[in-house]
Design a protein that fits this description.
Strand content: 5-15%
Structural class: alpha/beta
CATH class of the domain at 411-586: Mainly Alpha
Distance between the termini: 36 Å
Radius of gyration: 30 Å
Number of helices: 23
CATH topology of the domain at 411-586: Isoleucyl-tRNA Synthetase, Domain 1
Number of strands: 14
Largest sheet: 5 strands, parallel
Strand order of the largest sheet: 7-6-5-11-12
CATH superfamily of the domain at 411-586: Isoleucyl-tRNA Synthetase, Domain 1
Shape: globular
Helix content: 40-55%
Length: 596
């Protein structure tokens, strides 16, 4: 139990005993004491004044005396500053925590709770390679899944691949017309890049054809409909839905190229899935549910035969769930897939990691599932995140201005190599060790930068800033971990353990206590990150921990500590800091080097 929870319980019990009334945690606040005041934690008392008809100082004195008397093993003293009760936690409390947990690599993580969750992320299209936006999605989804696991939940990581539809046919028709049989092997090109190039080619040709038709006197609308490449693409989609053999064969071949490319990228960035769904298998899901919805009068049929739901009473509008020709729309298959997920895995919650441009769609999906009485519809959760842009602005895949994920990863790794070589501290590394180190730093910089921002916010990715060894970055945290491991190797190189039977009798120095207080807060950071589905909580936590440790180490020697007991205490402090940095970074998919 965290010190804050213990303090909350103590305050509630003490208030009830002092004033013979029932109180709740909403009746007061607990904060860390500001650095300019004496104490570790502060109880804010102003909300109690009206109820108790006492001044804040009077309440503070009575409560402070009660807490110090009743919990001497936790609190040693208190002071009142303008109605704020500042409590000092006993050094022995912090020292015991450090002694008990410094070697625990699972510190803060919880036992299984029995809750089962599916996290869906990535959701690529097979007409183009993964790009910068996919990177934020993958890193966010993967990290949230790991954070949920750390909080005792069983997690199924899933992905829905959008492998059918008009956009896929655009790449196919452009390849058919212009590729002259080119393959990834014949062109020495990654498969997803090759297919993506023909998606861009389609758009270029389409614009040329529309312009030519307009020059011949057609309206823009007519030209867009009559462009030969668009008409051919639309026919290809019809042929695909009818299962025409040569179209299906081309579709399977080109998709296989893309999947091989995706797999390479996923392996490079450390993204994985327990279950992959394909739209070609799910697009017919939900059609039976539409009929059930009609029978239940949840849906209604219009005169043209199309089927709709009226959500105006819920503040939305009417939404089509089946076209007049009987074909499905996106929402139809999403309803079917939502039910399939539940039936296959009996999940307690289904989390969709999808950009905020789909907020409306996800509201409609959950509302329809609720109105249909589908199991667990209440626990559909949209983890909505903001778009990511480069300093040069927005990206458009159909115009070929997208920032390719593979190129960006390679650029980050090359930059990490350049900066590491400039620092000149890796001369004793082998070539293989250096290659691994550059990967660790480059990928770590990118993941940390993309995850350090609250998911709800739109962000700008600055590659140069992300890899600064001195800023709010992954490399800064990685370097701190490597620095601590170097200290531990030096001081414990003879096999000596950081465990000590010595009792630490000297008072904790302010910076020693500051590090231990932050270490104690790691389980709380895990809980908050889980509740908020927010890896930036972990990113901020490990950065602040690394910063505090560096401040401590700048002021206080470990190897030449004033006494042997201080040396052991600081070794334990260093070991626990390294363990927690490694643990927190792993939850974001970031490796930390033993040396750099």
């Amino acid at each position: 139990m965290s010190i804050v929870n213990q303090l909350q319980i103590g305050v509630l019990k003490s208030l009830a005993s002092l004033y013979e009334q029932t109180f709740s945690e909403k009746d007061f606040q607990i904060n860390q004491t500001k650095p300019e005041f004496e104490g570790d934690y502060t109880v804010v008392l102003f909300s109690l004044v009206k109820t108790l008809r006492l001044s804040p100082d009077a309440i503070g004195n009575q409560l402070g005396e009660k807490l110090v008397n009743d919990y001497p093993e936790i609190f040693t003293s208190f002071n009142i500053i303008k109605g704020f009760l500042n409590l000092t936690v006993a050094d022995n409390y912090w020292i015991t925590l450090l002694n008990k947990n410094h070697a625990d690599i699972c510190y803060g993580k919880k036992a299984l709770t029995g809750k089962k969750v599916m996290v869906e992320y990535s959701s690529p299209n097979t007409n183009k390679p993964l790009h910068l936006g996919h990177l934020r999605n993958n890193f966010l989804g993967w990290s949230v899944a790991e954070i949920l696991k750390a909080n005792g939940q069983e997690v199924i990581k899933s992905c829905i691949v959008n492998d059918r539809g008009i956009h896929i046919c655009k790449s196919m028709i452009a390849w058919q017309w212009y590729a002259n049989g080119a393959t990834p092997q014949s062109t020495n090109t990654k498969g997803d890049h090759l297919v993506g190039a023909y998606y861009v080619k389609f758009n270029d040709v389409y614009k040329e054809q529309v312009a030519a038709l307009m020059a011949d006197g057609n309206t823009k609308e007519a030209a867009e409909k009559e462009a030969p490449i668009m008409k051919a693409t639309q026919q290809m989609l019809v042929d695909w839905e009818e299962g025409k053999p040569e179209v299906m064969e081309l579709w399977k071949t080109m998709n296989s190229w893309v999947y091989a490319g995706f797999d390479t990228t996923y392996q490079k960035i450390g993204s994985d899935f327990d279950k992959t769904y394909y739209e070609s298998n799910t697009y017919l899901l939900g059609k039976d549910i539409v009929q059930q919805g009609l029978d239940k009068k949840v849906f209604f049929k219009k005169e043209d035969g199309s089927i709709w739901i009226d959500l105006t009473a819920d503040g939305l509008d009417e939404k089509i769930v089946q076209r007049k020709d009987g074909t499905s729309v996106y929402i139809t298959q999403d309803i079917g897939l939502a039910l399939q997920k539940y039936e296959q895995f009996n999940i307690d919650q289904s989390i969709y990691v999808i950009g905020n441009e789909q907020n409306y769609h996800m509201k409609v999906l959950q509302l329809i599932c609720k109105k249909l009485g589908m199991p667990n519809a209440e626990n559909i959760f949209h983890l909505s995140y903001g778009m990511v842009e480069l300093t040069s602005g927005k990206m458009k895949s159909r115009e070929g201005t997208i920032v390719d994920a593979d190129e960006l990863v390679d650029e980050m790794i090359a930059t990490s190599q350049k900066l590491t070589e400039e620092l000149g501290k890796v001369k004793d590394f082998t070539a293989e060790e250096l290659k691994d180190l550059y990967d660790i730093i480059g990928l770590g910089a990118m993941k940390f930068y993309l995850l350090r921002v609250d998911p709800k916010k739109t962000m700008v990715f600055n590659p140069e800033e992300s890899i600064d060894f001195h800023g709010f970055t992954g490399p800064f945290v990685q370097y701190t971990h490597a620095r601590i491991k170097s200290i531990l190797r030096k001081e414990l190189g003879n096999g000596e353990s950081s465990n000590s039977t010595n009792e630490f009798k000297s008072p904790l120095l302010p910076l020693e206590k500051a590090v231990i207080i932050q270490l104690e807060q790691y389980p709380t950071a895990l809980e908050v990150a889980c509740e908020e589905h927010n890896p930036s909580v972990i990113a901020n936590y490990v950065f602040n921990l690394a910063k505090t440790f560096n401040s401590f180490y700048t002021e206080h020697s470990i190897g030449n500590a004033e006494t042997i007991e201080k040396k052991y205490l600081r070794l334990q402090l260093a070991a626990m800091t390294a363990n927690i940095i490694k643990s927190g970074m792993q939850l974001m998919g970031i490796r930390v080097p033993e040396r750099m």
